[in-house]
Design brief:
- The chain has 3 domains: 3-46; 72-250, Alpha-Beta Complex (Penicillin-binding protein 2a (Domain 2)), CATH 3.90.1310; 286-334 and 354-504 and 513-625, DD-peptidase/beta-lactamase superfamily (Beta-lactamase), CATH 3.40.710.
- Helix content is 35%, strand content 23%.
- It contains 19 helices and 23 strands.
Amino acid sequence: MPVNDKKRSSNVSSDSCFETRLKYLRLFFLVFACVIGAKLFLLQIVNAQFYQDLASGQHDVYEELIANRGDILMSDWKDGSEYVVATNESRAFVFAEPRKIEDPESTAKSLARILGYEITDVFVEPEVQAQSGGIFDGLFTADFPDEEGSSDPSMVDDESLEPEASDYELLLTRLSKENDPYEPVARNVPESTLNKILDLNLTGIYHVLEGVRSYPEANVGGHVLGFVSRTDEGMNGQYGIEGYFNDFLSGANGFLDIVTDIGGSWIGVGKRDFDPAVDGGDILLTIDRTIQYTACKALSEGVEKYDADGGSVVVMDPSTGRIIAMCNAPDFDPNIYNEVESIEIYNNGSIFDAYEPGSVFKPIVMAAALDMGAVTASETYVDTGEEKINEYTIHNSDLKAHGVQTMTEVLENSLNTGMIYVMRKMGGEVMTHYLEDFGFGTLSGIELDSEATGTLASLAKNSEIYYATASYGQGITVTPLQIASAYSAMANGGWLMQPYIVEEKRYTDGTVEDTQPRKIRQVIDSKAATTVGAMMVQVVENGHGRLAAVDGYYVAGKTGTAQVAKKDASGYEQGITIGSFAGFAPVEDPRFVIVVRIDHPRTTEWGESTAAPIFGEIAEFILDYLEIPPTR
């Protein structure tokens, strides 16, 4: 082959190899680029959120700053001392990791002794021991009730346990689940009890501290205070003061949001957002602690003595509208609010349970007639014992005819026919106007949750029969607080005052917002108020209110025995009544109004034998406590 041909062939072969290597190199870089692109796609698109969260977890710090809930206080008139009746405490939630516990029985016995459980012989079946319990995320929700008031493990749901198992049996069963990462032991554990548990240094037993709402004073009226429950959003006030002022008491949570380096130190040029928590304010109630305790005790004992379903007491300062005491029976303990038999017990009967008041309503209608000059205290009528209106016949409660009677005797003997006479003299529409001015049929505006208006709806029918029954307290509904407000107006020269139960709102910056007494309107003139007060003194001296009398003082008041309307039909329940007594003292310078209501007393149906003695007991104590000298 010629030399030139050999050179040409060699060059062709060399070029071919170079192109092949170049092609493979291009293919390599193409594949490499595709791999890099796919990896970037996974990092930046598919798994972007994961790596953002990972970086945030290493460099960002976000913490919610929890505000402290404000306190609720009461004071004593004697020396002005203040007492905390609702505050915050740190309690422990004790839980176990059973898989780390080598001797469940020994551990259970040690805990049971401290928690006060009775230790019994228990056989735990192997299959129960092997069961796995709840996952750890059930720490505060799934495996244990969210009510902070319970430290009783027997309230924990567990289908594997017999419902009649004792506290110790439940505890041992939980601790015996050898593969279980988490089981609750006890909630709301006091510091003293927790320290005893920690001293034992038990393997597999842990705790976390929780803020709980505590109510140090027992028997001071759970309905006034309400309670605090735990929700996903935090602590939430319900009912009473806790519910009405939840936002004020809760304050506002803050937060801390910063960027740190790998060592956890803040990066000077990084993000730093800080919003401090603002603690909730404190509330001082108008309630007198000593009078409250005495009134609640008298009511509770009275309900038991007369075998009643329940009852209410309201004590009010007529000159200002301050609520001095407010109680209901049965009461509940806000510390263990979740242990009530029915949620209906949370309702404050003094403001929620509207009822037909019966004869305690008569002085209010009489005061209206006196104010407009329709009748006088000494004016007479002839009582025949009954009054016919269309097809209806209305009788006196004693079913007697009393003959000639004065208006004072109408109240003394509680005559229904006499009140119909009064209503006719003033006119049904005029009577309705006065009742509305006394505040019936509307909210009083007191700072408590769940207030009811009661109703005067029947009077809108403009029918004489409805006017007639309303004149002696039937066919309309009211609350004990509304009765207390109306009697306060009669005791206060005719002036209706705004009822209030909060003396001061104290802000964390030191600002104090105090409540000033507020006049709503003058319903009757002072002469009518003085006259009806004197007429009610005769009720206590000579009439049905003798058991409400207090030696050495002139007490004005009126009894009431009301029928209870059927819920699902017309007419009234047979054999069920509500006994009431409302009044004030001393009549010359009234310092307090008391309304007592007793629901369905079984020992006797009459208010003069049930509510009146409770009124007298409370009134006698207050007169002595306030150091009011006898006036007779």
